[in-house]
Amino acid sequence: MTCYTLLALILTWPLITAFTTHVPGDGIDDPSLAWNLWWLRERLITQASADIFHVGWMFHPVQINLAFYTLTPMNGLLSIPLQLGTSLVVANNVVLLSSFVLGAFGAYLLVLDQRWWVDGCGGSSGAQTRQIPNAERTSLWIMAALVGGVIYAFASAKLFYASLGQFNIASSQWIPFCMLYLLRMVRPAVEGAARQHDRVRSAALAALFFGFQLWAELTYASFLAIFVALLFVWHISITRRRTWRAWVDLLTPYLLFGALAGIALLPFLWVMAPDLRTEGDFFASGGGFADVFSADLMGYLFPTRLHPLWGDWAATLPFPNDKGQHIFLGYSAMLLSVLGLWGLGRRNRAFAWLWGMSLLLFFTLTLGPTVRWAGQDTGVPGPFALFSHLPFFSGNRYPSRYSVMLMATVAVLSSFGLTWLMAWFVRARKAVRGARFWAACVAALFSVLFIFEHLATPLPLSDFRVPAIYQRLAQEPGDFAILELPTGWRNGARVLGKADLLIMMQQWWQTEHGKRRLGGNTSRNPEYKFQYFTQAPLLGDLIALMNADRPHIGAVVDAEFANMVAKNRPRAGQILRDLGIRTILVHEEKATPQLLSFVHAALPVVEVDRWQGEDGAGEPATIVRYAVTWEDAQPARTISLADDAAPLYLGEGWSALPAADGIRYATRPEAVLLLDLPETGGSLSLDWQGPAQSLRMTVNGRAVALQPTAPGRADALLPPGLADQPVDRVVLRFEGAPQPAGQMAQPPDGLRWRIGDAAASLPASSWLVVRSAGEEVGDFAHIFVNGRDVARGERGYNLAALNREGVVLDSAVFDTSGDDAASDKLAAWIMQWPAGTIIAGAVNDDASLKLSDAAVAALRNVGVANDLRGKLRWSHAFIGAVGAPAGAAVEALDLIRPVAVTVGAQIDGAEVYGGLRLLTIRRGS
């Protein structure tokens, strides 16, 4: 352990020189992963709540489910004593270093334990090692195991993850412990009942370490599951079972392991299931990057870009190698692994098959869906494509991360090879009595060679010293939210708002001030968690202003700036009050001129604090803190759920659009409102309608009685202290059978819905809702046909063709942003349909860059008037018909907002459970 600790300090240089102020990383992932440790302490100790997954301290006020985020609860739990005794930065660095030390020690134990299969009951030691006394052979195994620990824990892949601040991916320390007990679990029974008892105990311990790894990094648990499956298949293939008792003995440890591992996974599944049930399988969202994050076969031949001698050259290699996807085993490890596998095959052929299959499987998994050489796709498929379609595995978009299992396999095989190489060397020199010395020399030589090949020093460090303005903010009493400008919302696929390292440091600075934030970072999330901020009044405009430094956005913002100010100045105070925002912090060097002007022209703020210094990159930084002047609380206030301010108050469960009659319909049995209710008490009145027969309500998780006061009206008394959150979460439960959403509207003639000014129409029972968002405002395309989304949801024009009865004939997507051939394909696709065929279209991300005359002409042939050429990342939605004149389609486009068009009921769900027109909040006297 001392040796591994010293290596960890040396190979993470210069971390030890700034141990109390810096952490390894590039400022992207390290702030949020260090935040994890704070959140565990904050939630469990300060807030005294066991629910670590549901957090309202970022993504305020909509909250976020951290089960879909790289929360690393195990690391957080281990860090709490360190945080209480030292500091959060020190705790983070100690936990990171412990992952190297424990990982190396676990690999050391794993290798040492495999001697049973070679020198013990499981195999023959061979002529070379039999000539060496047992004590001296033990020395050889210990030396080889020490090297195995070095190979597993200090490979360049793991050091690369540390350099990126991806402390979750660096947390692979529990894998070798789990593998050790899994392999003990399958040892043949040679002592009857006693051996079976040992196998059951080993299964329980394997499950324990599986749980540790699952709670440190969920992805690695799925990798271990693959190893278990491989081990089971191998175990079945080498075992002769002729009786039911024998089968029970074989299966019992696996079943116990599965049951205990399932218990460890259960808390994650428990908090994931409700979101997956209501929002669909967004766990796999952000996929499609596997080719970028796959290991290139060429990379296995060269050190990484972090190598102090060859790193600059390695950075020029013709494949992506900047995010840990460059996997290099090292020539010393490859040589020893080949020797180890060959030697193992001579001594225990069955055991050699297990490790050989493990080597092959995890090596090919790192290569991704198809094998790449020098950045070029060879077209040769790999097993990753199969695994990526399996539940639980579909969320992994980094094939290169399978290298952790590959390195565990290489560490074991290399240790085998080193053991036999040392034995040969000792025997050749006839120096058996000095075996320890010669073993140490050979082991040290290969350790030095491996470490040199995998050097990744100096590791980049992030400065985690917090500007003093946040320390002063922490002294402000009360539970309230802050708005940082600019800010952003990030997940594993995209960034909404300002794409800058600033938005990640804002999450870290929260560990100092402790206030709720609108911005935040996660891994996977439902679409709504981003779209709330895009579509909420004021916030959507602020996002556009944050991005006004992008040329295609700046011109539009400049043209609309006066209208933005005039629209938001009268309502900004009330909106900020409704969101519980008492403080706004502006980072002046990162803010656009338009954003700075808007803050002073439209927001009711007064400067109260200012800080000037340097940011983490050494650049000048100015942070200004403004106090918000709230609007006076009104005795009674009525909110319409049909006006343009309504999205501010809508949580999950509502249709994205209000119906034509001013009612906002719930497309789920439960729908959420986000309201500023009076903490001192009052009442809430709801103007609602069916099809639900009755309505129930909770406020901040507590049931509140609703009393019918008139047909379609219900009132609730709000006792003092109930509304104790900056934004109160009101859940409405509509009870009763739902109705098809199409029944909520009827065409003027009672027969058919006309498609804009075209001659085509849809039956009265059909409805279309088309929604589009360019990259900066949502990055989605939806075409709801009778409540079912038929759009592919990929970049470019997403199109659907329907006949006059509303039956979907086909749907397709054409990437007219990045594919030179897409425009011609789009034109051909449209022209195949007969006149009168209804065509619905929505742009996802962008559709402008490769749009051709032929595509524009084809779109005009369905009634589309607008030409997106020169309109980078504009949202565009339309519903038209083949043969209609240009301008006849129902159409909408915008750059700084999502757009939607409809025919029939304006509801993007198949069924509705109830509706809400108005709500009135009254404050108690």
Output the structural class: alpha+beta
What is the helix content? Answer: 40-55%
Mean pLDDT: 93
- What proportion strand? 15-25%
Per DSSP, the total helix count is 28
Poorly predicted ranges (pLDDT <50, ≥5 residues)?
none
Main beta sheet: 9 strands, mixed
How many beta strands in the DSSP annotation?
A: 37
Estimated radius of gyration = 31 Å
Shape estimate: globular
- Please report the distance between the alpha carbons of the first and last residues: 68 Å
Describe the structure.
41% of the residues lie in helices and 20% in strands. It has 925 residues and is an alpha+beta fold. β21 and β22 form a beta hairpin. α4 (88-113) packs parallel to α10 (175-185). The longest helix is centred in the N-terminal third of the chain and has 36 residues, at 244-279. The radius of gyration is 31 Å and the shape is globular. The chain starts with a helix and ends with a strand.
Short description:
The chain is an alpha+beta fold and 925 residues long. The protein has 28 helices and 37 strands.
Provide keyphrases for this structure.
single chain, 925 residues, alpha+beta, nine-stranded mixed beta sheet, six-stranded antiparallel beta sheet, 28 helices
Write the layout of secondary structure elements.
Blueprint lengths: L1 H10 L10 E3 L5 H17 L7 E2 L8 E2 L7 H13 L2 H26 L1 H4 L7 H5 L3 H20 L2 H8 L3 H4 L4 H11 L7 H24 L1 H21 L5 H36 L31 H4 L16 H17 L1 H18 L3 E4 L2 E6 L2 H4 L15 H26 L6 H19 L7 E3 L4 H7 L6 E5 L2 E3 L4 E3 L4 H12 L2 E2 L2 E2 L6 H8 L3 H8 L4 H18 L3 H7 L2 E7 L5 H10 L2 E10 L5 E9 L7 E5 L23 E3 L3 E6 L6 E8 L4 E6 L2 E3 L2 E4 L2 E6 L9 E8 L3 E2 L11 E3 L6 E3 L4 E7 L5 E6 L2 E2 L6 E7 L5 E7 L7 H10 L6 E8 L7 H8 L14 E7 L8 E5 L4 E5 L7 E2 L1 E10 L2
Parallel strand pairs: 7-10, 7-12, 8-11, 27-32
Antiparallel strand pairs: 1-6, 2-3, 4-5, 8-9, 12-14, 13-14, 15-37, 16-37, 17-23, 18-22, 18-37, 19-20, 19-23, 21-22, 24-36, 25-26, 27-28, 27-35, 28-29, 30-31, 30-32, 32-33, 33-34
Helix pairs in contact: 1-4, 2-3, 2-21, 3-4, 4-7, 4-10, 7-18, 7-19, 10-11, 10-12, 11-12, 11-13, 12-16, 15-16, 15-18, 16-18, 18-19, 20-21, 24-26, 27-28
